[in-house]
Design a protein that fits this description.
homodimer, 246 residues, alpha+beta, four-stranded antiparallel sheet, 8 helices, DNA-binding
Chain lengths: 246, 246
DNA sequence: AAATGTGATCTAGATCACATTT
DNA sequence: AAATGTGATCTAGATCACATTT
């Protein structure tokens, strides 16, 4: 997908283009151009830097977001302060819907892993859109149900699969959603640390480091500081799916 | 909550009462009586025995259900055939919505843990209701979002907490949703095996058995064949929340 | 027959402790 | 300074193997 807006300033200048882009967001699919323009006119852009937050878990759910550039990780914190990464989203993805759906506080946090820009609506505005545009409500059901089904599958995998397979799946998922072709193979297109992978898969950075070292020895991956390239993705698929490795 | 219908035969006789009951289902909250009556008239009841299925994971998502009596576990199977229990639902709970929300197959299975009766609509019917009754779509977003948030919390717990705590949480959850006061304390009101608890918490029946034995020694639970009574629920809360135990 | 209980043993992966790299 | 690599050690909980209970 092409970049939507390179920065916050370019956004308000072209409302027609904005409406066209919004129509490609799954949540707003199927809406008439004038409705999209009206929804778009109620948004304002917000840009944050890498490591900054759009919102914290537990904060008042005052706003709804659609990411227009960058990557954002959706996280939860344990009472002991350990972070868990639920998913990493990219441009065109909606997040922070809890307020519009009736919750008082965000059940998750949202942190930029690289500089990010999002369109922001107040939760009240988005609740009104949900209530006046039945198509948006239908899209929202499908969107949230999709998230639920995906998490159910990963929950099952966390319950039943070994760490190696879960880490293999996480890497494949990341390149599927954010892969960039490079000479050596497919690279994950934003900074990912061993710690990030550990927080996505329910293990420790030590174990991720050892797995990546072992895979590097076998020529399956190449990795550096916050950078991972899959040189033989099919070999990781074999690990993830328990296929014979040829 | 009082029993809705003791068996399939009693259902069709009183459409007004049916509409009143449907109005208490979260998904149908806020609908006018005539709309409820129309929705109710399109349902038919289905009764199955303990251990039988309303549907299998992966089957065509042809129908939508509201449980009116009994308990149903929502499950997933691993490729190796191991079962995982995502949740156990009771009367008034909706399930099998995937078809109405646009999926072709059920992402989970639904098995009765005791004799159960559900109202059944075709997925097409329910999709039409979703499309013509904006309030139902709004309710559905809230319902599915609630399921998602709950699973996100449990996913985090599965990633970060020890087995003992997860099992303590599972028991507390079961008595909260299906607890029955008895002389000795609070009993889980349907048959639960060690295996069921293991499939809910991502451990083995052996570990659950050992935990229950240890807790029985400490006077926290009493348990028998497919039966668990919490005699000191507060002690389990202390285990689940890491409180000092007094 | 299916569910449960429990001792003995094993092991995947966590934890600890440093060293090295970017 | 933050991220990574890796040897040494530890341990929670799985696995195995029976015995017992309902």
């Amino acid at each position: 997908m092409a970049r939507w807006w390179v920065d916050a300033e370019t956004l308000p200048h072209d409302n027609e283009e904005l409406a066209r882009r919004l129509g490609q967001v799954p949540l707003f699919q199927g809406l008439a151009a004038d409705v999209l323009a009206r929804i778009g006119s109620q948004a304002h852009p917000k840009a944050i830097g890498a490591g900054e937050l759009f919102f914290n878990e537990g904060a008042d759910a005052e706003a709804f977001f659609v990411l227009t550039s960058g990557r954002v990780k959706l996280t939860q914190l344990t009472p002991e302060g350990h972070q868990v990464v639920l998913r990493i989203i990219g441009e065109g993805d909606a997040f922070g819907g809890a307020g519009a759906f009736g919750d008082l506080t965000y059940p998750i946090g949202a942190e930029a892993v690289e500089p990010a820009v999002a369109l922001v609506w107040t939760s009240d505005t988005m609740r009104q859109v949900l209530e006046t545009e039945p198509r948006v409500a239908l899209n929202a059901v499908q969107f949230v149900a999709g998230r639920l089904h995906d998490l159910q599958r990963r929950h099952r995998q966390l319950m039943t699969e070994r760490v190696e397979r879960r880490v293999a799946r996480a890497l494949l998922r990341l390149v599927r959603e954010a892969g960039r072709r490079v000479d050596a193979g497919v690279e994950i297109d934003f900074p990912v640390s061993r710690q990030d992978i550990a927080e996505m898969t329910g293990t420790t950075l030590y174990t991720v480091s050892r797995l990546l070292s072992a895979w590097e020895d076998r020529g399956i991956v190449e990795s550096g500081r916050q950078r991972i390239t899959l040189t033989k993705p099919h070999a990781l698929v074999a690990l993830a799916e328990d296929l014979p490795e040829r």
